Each structure stands twice: as C-alpha cells, then as structure tokens.
Amino acid sequence: MPISIQPKQVWLGGALLLVALASGGFYLVLQTNHSATATLTARLPGMDQQTPVAAAATPFANGRLQPGPGAPAPTTGVWPCFRGSHGDNIATGNPPLAQHWKELWRINLGEGYAGAAVRNGRVYLLDYDQAQQTDALRCLSLADGQEIWRFSYPVKIKRNHGMSRTVPTVTDRYIVALGPKCHVICLDAQTGQFQWGLDLVKEFNVEIPQWYAGQCPLVDGDRVILGTGGDALLVAVELATGKVLWKTPNPHDWKMTHSSVVPIAGPGQRQYVYCGSGGVAGFAAGDGHLLWETDAWQISIATIPSPVPVGTDRIFLSGGYNAGSLMLRLVESVGKIEPRVEYRLPASEFGSTQQTPILYQDHIYGVRPDGQFACLDLTGKTLWASGGAARFGLGPYLIAGTQILALNDDGWLTLADATPVAYHPLARARILTGHDAWAPLAFVDGRLLARDLTQLVCLDMVGRGVPTAPPATHGGLGTARPTGNE
C-alpha cells in the first residue's frame, strides 16, 4: 500500500524509565511493574570444573522444527547479521533510494526488539511464543513474509520490557542465535535442522543480563565468538559442532553485557574487542589471549552499544545513563598494546543509550541522549544536530548508499542525506503504528526490514517490485496491531 510522506516533524516527549534491547539495543518504557533485578545463577561448589551438560538437561532436547508454506524470494542479497555484512551498518550496492515508499508485507510477532538477518531470500528472526513458552527461531520469505520454517525450544520467560532482543547470524550453511536466557542454537540455514546448542548459564556460569541477553553472536570464519563473562571472559566455539576451541580467563569477574563482540584489524594483529561489565578489552583473534584491557570505559547501569572501530588503532565507545562517549587509541610498544584515552565527551555533547553509532567517510553519525541525530568529526566536534523538532529517541538507524534511514520510537521513518555539511531531511512517513520501534534495521536489495514491539514490516525503498494487491498481514506469535499507515 502507498505510504504518504508527511512534511511535519512529530516528537512525543515524556518521562521515561529505563529498559533494554538488542545488542546493542536497549529501551526505555513509560511505566513498568516488573522488577529490574537480573536473573542470577548461584555458583555452587564444583561448578568451576563441571562436566559437559547432557543433552537431556538442556531445552534443545525438546526442540521442534515446524515447516511452513513460505518459499525463499529469488534474490541473493545479504544482511547476514547485526549491523550488516561488514559490521558497520552501511548498505552498499543498492539503487538510489526513493522518497515514496511501498509496504510489501508485515507480520505479527511476540513482544520484543529482535532484528532480522537476511540471506538467499530468507529472513531470520528470533521470536518468543508466550502461549507455548518457547524461543522460536523463524525463517520467513523475503518476498511475502510467509513462514518457511520455525525451530522452537521450551524456555520460560516473564515479560521484562519485551523478550527477544538479539539479531541472529547466518552463513551459507548455518544460522546461529542467542536467546533471551543465554541459550545459543545453531541450525541448518536452509532446512532449520538442529545442529548444536549451548546453555551458557550451565556451561560457563554466565549471569543472564538485566532485561535478558542483548548480545548478537559474532561468526568469524569457522567459529562463533561470544562475550560470556562467568568462567570465561570470551569464548570461541566451532561453528559446525559447538565444540569449545578456547576460553579467555576472567580474573576480574566481568559479567556479560548487551554489547556485541567486534573484530578489528590491529594494531599488531587482528583482535576481538568486547565491552564487559568492568571495562573494555582486546583479545588475540587466533587463540583469545588477552592483549589489553582498561576500566576507563564503564557504564554503571547497562552497556549496550558496541565498539566502533576507527582505522586500525582507534575505537569509539558510547553509552547512555550519563556515560557520554570516548575515543580510545591503541598504542603498540615493545610487543605490548597500551589503551589510551584520546578524548572523552560528556553526555551533553554525545552519547548513545541504545544504538551503536555509524562511522561513515571519517565522520560519526548517531542519536545523542537528547534524541537529536548528530554528526561528529573524528576529533569529537559536533558538526550538526537535527534540531529540537527532529528527535529520534531510542530508535535505530543505518546508512544506505549516501543516505540515512532513521526510525523513531513511534515508527516514523526519516530519510536524510549522510553528509557532514548539515542535517538535510528528504522524506518522512509513519511505517509502524505500535510503539517501542527499537530493533536494529536490516536493508537488502532495496528492501527495509523494521519492527516495533509486536510487528515486522518490509518496505520497498527504491520503487521496484511493488505488489499489485494489498499487502497481507500474516499471523504470528503476538497480538495483532493496527496495520494502517498515517
């Protein structure tokens, strides 16, 4: 159905209380009657040398694969994981974006903030079925949203500002997802057949983060990298089997956060960077040994945005809850790497409560705590902000080609030029009519996938492949929301 472009900017203000999202994702809610206490697992004698968990003791033993009527779309476009193919949240190789958009389809979901991954015409999404009390990894058709298959396993989860909030990672052969209570599953990406599963709480004494897990799994070649905390700070498991390849010791007892592990090129050697509860650290990509760590970057309530690599020797870090932001420089000397704070910005200048900022053409783009979209240079100087009327709250954003696509809390999508010269919006429309539209976006083959608390929508953003019939709304796991556009 056509979506009319509205020139008027709208922002609904209000007092907000804290919440959480996916990996980088978090949320705020207006009210809550739920406890903000993290689910903890008691450390008992002998757990440090526990034997592998038997299959019967995990929920995966009762997993169920259900086929559906959907078929993959005839396309080879890829958005395989959180923040896209290159981990930078930039979509390249697409036609120029149009300023009038068409809705292709939408579906209902269980409550949550989990974003989509896309490969070979299939959309992968981690959902939660409240009626059946199961995590559900769903494979949908990019063409029409119909379900191709779903794999479910039993997990009891109480509503806690939504349930699922992570983005799966898909390769040509496998799909890997991290569930709300730290269950990792690997399935065949085409058929949905179960390959292996890990209960991180039982395997590594992981403490489930407040508001459930928000970290998105990193697949790097033939291995999966996870920031666990507990008995190990970082772990690598074999992608094909789930076998643990190495574990990095955790002497400071850092806990798992909602931030995701990010690979960087250097200095010196390829590394993984992870923000744990006690700071940020770098690890050798080969064997996971600790290269450097610092407590200069800590967020007292929740660490959500992921590190942003800047070249081979700098890392931009940002957070909410008055954390602001920080540029870290890695200096190599006498075979060691020393992390040094290059500059720090107060929250009044720049920070990011939930979404991870984007590095694009040597400039940093993101939404700061007052809700304004802003552009910084690499010295931390603000070049522009979107202004008082153009506020985006905790919503996600990405860059496609040379333009920004930014979604606000209430489902209003803005198209703007990605330029350091000035904030230059081009078009705006409401694409979702629910609330808490906080999930990371996905963009592939000119299509945008966006969601709010209970619905996922697919839009044609380039003016091709528009259906002649009204788009269908397929039943899902949650209560249906209105589908009309304003």
Structural domains: how many = 1
CATH domain class: Mainly Beta
CATH superfamily: YVTN repeat-like/Quinoprotein amine dehydrogenase
Structural class: mainly beta
Overall 3D shape: globular
Predict the CATH topology.
Answer: Methylamine Dehydrogenase, Chain H
Q: Give average pLDDT, whole number.
A: 86
Strand content: 35-45%
Q: Per CATH, which architecture?
A: 7 Propeller
Low-confidence stretches: 1-56, 465-486
Helix content: under 10%
SS element count, helices: 1
Distance between the termini: 11 Å
How does the major sheet shape up?
6 strands, mixed
* Count of extended strands: 39
| Cα radius of gyration in angstroms | 21 Å
Account of the 3D structure:
- By secondary structure, the chain is mainly β.
- The chain has one domain: YVTN repeat-like/Quinoprotein amine dehydrogenase (Methylamine Dehydrogenase, Chain H), CATH 2.130.10.
- It is built from 1 helix and 39 strands.
- Strands 1, 7, 36, 37, 38 and 39 form a 6-stranded mixed beta sheet that branches. Strands 4-11-10-9-8-5 form a 6-stranded antiparallel beta sheet, with no helix packed on it. It has a 5-stranded mixed beta sheet with strand order 6-32-33-34-35, with no helix packed on it.
- A hairpin with a 3-residue loop joins strand 12 (169-170) and strand 13 (174-178).
- The termini are close together.
